[in-house]
Amino acid sequence: MKYLPLLLSLMALMMSFDVAAQDDLAAKMKKEGVVPGAIYQKGKKTEGYIKTITYRSDNGEYTSPWAYQDDFKFIEAEKFLKKDKVKNKDFEKYGPKDIDGYDYEDLTYVSAKYSDMTAVGTNMIARTRFFRKIKDGKVTIYHYYSAPPPVTSGDYDYTPHLTPQPVYRIGDKGKLTLVADMKVEEELKDCPDVVEQYKSGAYDVIGGDKKGLFAINSGFCIFSR
Questions:
Q1: What is the pTM of this model?
Q2: Nearest to 111 by CA among 124, 123, 125, 94
Q3: What pLDDT, in 10s, does the model give residues 158-211?
Q4: Which residues, listed in sequence order, are joined to residue 168 by a DSSP beta bridge?
Q5: For this UniProt entry, which residues form the secretion signal (predicted)?
């Protein structure tokens, strides 16, 4: 008991140092315009910071969600923390052809090739993009956002581009396909109960004008009304 006051004082001092360090890091991140993130390359995860791509709106959603599907700037955590002043040249630029995926705050994106057949012009050509992972499992669900044209008028309606197109992939190397185009009876043949309920009209598949919620998790097929 003799040393208890000293021990408590040391613990309080350590906690104050930790809080101060966190405050310093938060201030540095704000100054440099970065958010916590990580990149995935050849099975390796590298943690660091990503230049802010867009900001969250009042409802918590990210503005311009299509902007996360292309290149971004990243700096490794150790490098960021060591430098008193971070310069633009300290960041590395990564695109969907360079890495397997990345984390941006609480979001995860995966690199894959996809052809947007709902688009017009060059967007219909299959190319590699980042896709936001929504649900992992035997069949993985992603969100894809169509990008607006590079030049728009002042009254251009961005609303359609803010609505995600759910796409899915069976296994790690499967082809990305719109959920609305899923051949349910063929691709979910391992889940006969779900197929029967789908055929009876109990469930629907999201996409286009259809309503409902589609999810497959941990190898089990699940449809929600």
A1: 0.77
A2: 94
A3: 888 888 888 888 877 778 888 877 777 887 777 787 778 777 776 655 443 333
A4: 141, 177
A5: 1-21
